[in-house]
Amino acid sequence: MARKHITDDDEGKKVVDSAGQEIGMITEVRSGTAYVNADPGLADTIRSKLGWNKADENDYPLEEKSIDSVTDDEVRLLDDF
After folding, report:
1. E strand or H helix at 68, and its extent?
2. Half-sphere exposure of 44 (CA within 13 A, CB side)
3. How far apart, in whole angstroms, are the C-alpha atoms of residue 64 and residue 40?
4. Comparing 78 with 1, which gets the higher pLDDT?
5. Which string of DSSP letters, residue by residue, matches 34-62?
6. Cα within 13 Å of Cα(33), Cβ side
7. How far apart are CA 56 and CA 1, in angstroms?
8. Which residue, 28, 68, 71, 78, is most buried by CB atoms nearer than 10 A?
9. How far apart are the first and last CA of the chain?
10. Sign of torsion, CA 72 57 30 42?
11. Other C-beta atoms lying within 10 Å of the C-beta of residue 13
């Protein structure tokens, strides 16, 4: 079942636009805010899935109002994110 809020378990998930195009990956969730890396490498992906990655200056906060749905595999954004 899809939801609209972010949890710590969403670290490492891909972020897609409304058309399903991948635009990045959640590298960290901090205080309910997801941070997205638009160009993650393999090492970033592995660290994030293990919970070892931390957001840095290359990561952007994702406002919850921009989220259409969160599933087991991805975070889908609204049309007008």
Report:
1. strand 67-70
2. 19
3. 21
4. 78
5. EEEESS--HHHHHHHHTT-----TTEEEE
6. 10
7. 31
8. 28
9. 22
10. positive
11. 22
CB neighbourhood size of 75 (10 A): 24
Positive or negative, the Cα torsion across 56, 58, 62, 63?
A: positive
Question: In residues, how long is the chain?
Answer: 81
Question: pLDDT per residue over 1-39, tens digit each?
Answer: 788 899 999 999 999 999 999 999 998 998 889 999 887
Q: Letter for the amino acid at 63?
A: E
Structural tokens at position 68 = 């259409």
Which token pair is 60? 């952007």
- The two tokens of residue 58 are 């290359």
42 contacts: CB under 8 Å, gap ≥ 6: none
> For residues 61 and 59, what is the distance between their CA atoms, to the nearest angstrom?
7
Q: Model-level pTM?
A: 0.79
